[in-house]
């Protein structure tokens, strides 16, 4: 029995990749019947020449797209002329095959259904291809297992990023915005997002909004991490007037989880961390620390202190935290410590650009605000007076950070 199970687990190399010959023919026949509508429909759905499994169909669709870009009419006569000009008429089966495509498609009304079938089959083939590459990499690569895993996740993620999202209907957009406006009016807070717990900051930002990338930048030892932890505590402890305790994910690439928790306990207890580490605390301080720790025990804060994380791995872990715990905000401390090995050889500026773009994509995908801490360059220290105030250009390593960010603090 065990032998039979082991044999059934061996991949079958003679399997035909997923495809639908009828759906492919029907799309091409629909284009020949109603080119303008069907070509636009296919492009909106994400159909590309590679979406077709049959090489003949792939070539024909590529020709159709080219003719459409040139504003040429597409019918049996014009297509035959274009194929003859390119010298590939016989390659696609000749004129008889083109006639069969039209004859086998009774109507172009169902072109959207045909396109969906072709898209789904192409997606399955891409997943199979990436999986085979992952298997080969596992057998042949000399890289460490975590790197192989990261590359595999990245390959699958690239497939996911190419998915076309349907447009949200206009009435739903208007209705959603009006609900936000009315909620702000009813609560009299002026907030359209999640409160930070700091009144002055909320007045400027109207709260942290889903899908936003917020950059909190400063020179070292200026309190970036402390402020971020205070915000996390406010959200998770409902200490900011919000009746709902909001789960928060914190990725600390620099400090250990123990250090961060110690900071949060001391902050909530209003006890200096220097006194705690030095052992100079009295009975009152000890009681305050105990009460703070008791309160924090139930806080829905999820802390990941894995060092030197890849940007894509942060995104992958955040996706799991969102799925498992429905986190409402993500904090990353800090951007310049993250890596993106795919772009490492192109220089730190290019790598940082890819990291910030990934953080913005993560915010949009998970529909939560993402607060990312960042270092500033030394330029403010070289200026005096009013000119010493930080500028967007002072963000360290890359100008793309300010482009990807919705808010820079």
Short description, anyone?
The protein has 409 residues and is an alpha/beta fold. It is built from 17 helices and six strands. The protein has a six-stranded parallel beta sheet with strand order 3-2-4-5-1-6, sandwiched between helices.
Largest sheet: 6 strands, parallel
Low-confidence stretches: 1-10
Number of strands: 6
| Nearest-integer average pLDDT | 80
Give the helix tally.
17
Beta percentage is: 5-15%
Order of helices and strands: HHHHHHHHHHEHEHHHEHEHEHE
Helix content: 55-70%
Shape: elongated
Folded structure, characterized:
The protein has 409 residues and is of the alpha/beta class. It contains 17 helices and six strands. It has helices spanning 2-8, 21-33, 35-45, 55-69, 76-86, 94-103, 111-140, 145-161, 170-187, 199-205, 224-237, 257-269, 273-278, 283-297, 311-325, 348-366, 400-404; strands at residues 213-218, 248-252, 301-304, 329-333, 370-375, 407-408. It has a six-stranded parallel sheet with strand order 3-2-4-5-1-6, sandwiched between helices. Helix 16 links the parallel strand 4 and strand 5 (370-375). Helix 12 (257-269) crosses helix 14 (283-297) and helix 15 packs parallel to helix 16 (348-366). The radius of gyration is 28 Å and the shape is elongated. The N and C termini lie far apart (63 Å).
Write the layout of secondary structure elements.
Blueprint: H1 2-8, H2 21-33, H3 35-45, H4 55-69, H5 76-86, H6 94-103, H7 111-140, H8 145-161, H9 170-187, H10 199-205, E1 213-218, H11 224-237, E2 248-252, H12 257-269, H13 273-278, H14 283-297, E3 301-304, H15 311-325, E4 329-333, H16 348-366, E5 370-375, H17 400-404, E6 407-408
Parallel strand pairs: 1-5, 1-6, 2-3, 2-4, 4-5
